[in-house]
Structure formats: structure tokens, C-alpha cells
What we know:
Layout (H helix, E strand, L loop, with lengths): L2 H4 L1 H9 L4 E2 L7 E6 L7 H6 L4 E6 L7 E11 L8 E9 L4 E5 L7 E5 L1 H10 L5 E10 L6 E12 L7 E3 L13 E4 L11 E8 L6 H7 L2 E8 L3 E3 L12 E9 L16 E4 L12 E6 L14 E5 L11
Antiparallel strand pairs: 1-2, 2-3, 3-6, 4-5, 4-8, 5-7, 8-9, 10-11, 11-14, 12-13, 12-15, 15-16, 17-18
Amino acid sequence: MSRRRIFPSLVSLLIAMVVVHTGASAQGWQLDVTVQSDPPPYVSDWKQMNGLAVLVLANPDLTVPTPVRIVTEAFQNVPLGTPVFKSRTDKILMPSSVITLNNTDLVEIDITQVDEALKDRVIRSGRLPEGNYYVCITVLDPSSGAVYVRKTCAGFRITDSDPVKLLWPENAYTQPLAQYPEFSWTPVNSPADAAITYKFKLVELLSGQNPFQAIDANQPHFETAVVRKFLLQYPMSAQELVEGKTYAWRVQTIDQNDLPATRNKGFSDVWTFTFRPAAPPVPRELGVELLYPADRDTIPWIPPQLIARFRPFSDSVTALNE
């Protein structure tokens, strides 16, 4: 298989992942690149799924057909030094028209430079390695080399970690739970210095809804965020869970830059449970001890309050009134 056919999808991936951006340009030239949020790392997605990214080049001042060369350079970590690849494609821009390149159109790009180590890794895995990247795009006159749109760079991050997996309560759980149950999930695989936040959301599942509809559309019954923790105790201060109602819950992971920390925009699956409170534990011993008035106490003429201590202790009851 030739280099032209082995690596073009990686080029399309890198070009397409620039965040919406308008390039600095000579008079009249306009370059916009848009990309779907949370870009997937898989080369096959970018090769087959139309509409993930679109590049648009225009010049409303043109009066004659004009050849253009679109040059793309990609860098890892910083937009300096030797690019991991460099590519070009030649087109003709017609007056009162635009050049539109979709990610699926970019497979014919002519590769002029490729980092072989990165290329081999992409071929073996079928996906771009996780990390930070920069893409720089220049638009030239292919004959003279005159610059129509100067080199403009934008950064992005490829996230290839699996979303967290929900653990407890199990999906579609209907057995009794504590009044303030615990929720748990697996930690995300991330660098040690990454401050991962887990956004917890719980909604009531209404009649006729599936869990995904409910979690996206319904008002949260409870939501919160925890940092570097994989277990959440439903707080006593939160809106109480109602017996017999079904709830849907989900966790989203984000990093310190408020960006998704995993694939699927950082979202886990959506699980449900029907709340049935567990019966309170029966104490081994139930008793009450009179504290006031004590034996042989002198009491006032007006009948006093009786003060007692309960076993097991409860701070919700402090006195008996007669």
C-alpha cells in the first residue's frame, strides 16, 4: 500500500480538528474550519462519517478562476520545529463561489512529509494517540508561492480514555436501598497531574421516557461535582428520593480545563434504579432512662418537664412533655 493511501485519513483528522477559526489573510481571502465537538480518535470515523469537519475557503473579490494550494502542517505539543506531517492539496476557486472540503473529501491529499513513528502507530492502532496537537494551515498561489492566507495555528486535544463505568446501584436496580444511598463508579485513566472532576446528575424517569431522554431533558432531581472521588453519598440536604419512583443517573468526567476527559464527551452510560427504602435496623435493646427528676429529687410546685435518655440514642427526641 502506498504512502498516499496509508496515511491520508490521519491528515484529514488533523486538519479537521481545528476549532472553529478564521485565518489571517490577504485582502478578501477567508478561511474557516469547523469541527464537531469532542472529536473521535479513530481514523475510520473520519474516513467514513461525513460531516465531522468542514473546511471552507472563499474570496468574494475574485473575478477570475484562481488556483490555490492548501498547505497543512501538524505538530505535537507545541506549534514549532519539525511537523509530524505536512500535506498539500491544489484546487481552483471560482468567482462568487467557495471551496468546501469535508473530512471525507480529504483522503486525496498529497503527503509531502510524514513522521514515520507516528504513522506506524496510527496504522497499528487505527487511531491517533492521546495528547495535545496543533494544526497550522496556509493557503498559497501554487505558481508563485504568494501567500493568500498566512499560516494560522490552532490547538486541540485527542482524548482516548474509556468513559467511567457505573458500579452501584446496579442498572435497573429494584431492591431496597438506604434512605441516602451511595453511588459509585470507576476512576478515569488520566495523567497523575490531571484534576479530574466527576459531574453527577440524577433525574426522575417519567412515564414514556427512556433513560437517555430523561437524563437530557428532565430537571435534575440532584446534581453535584466531586474531584478525584469515585463514590458519592446522597446527601441528607438534597431533595429526598421518593419511594416507588424510578430515577436515572449518569456521571461526566471533565479535566481542569473544563474539557471532556474521556470519549463520548466524558459521559458514562445512563443507569436507572427504582427507589425502595430499606427497613430501619431493629435495635437489640430499646429502653429509656429517666434523667429528671431523679429519684428523691425535690420538684417545683408546677409540674416539671420530664427529661429522659433513650437507648439507642436519638438526638431527634430530647424530652417527654406531660
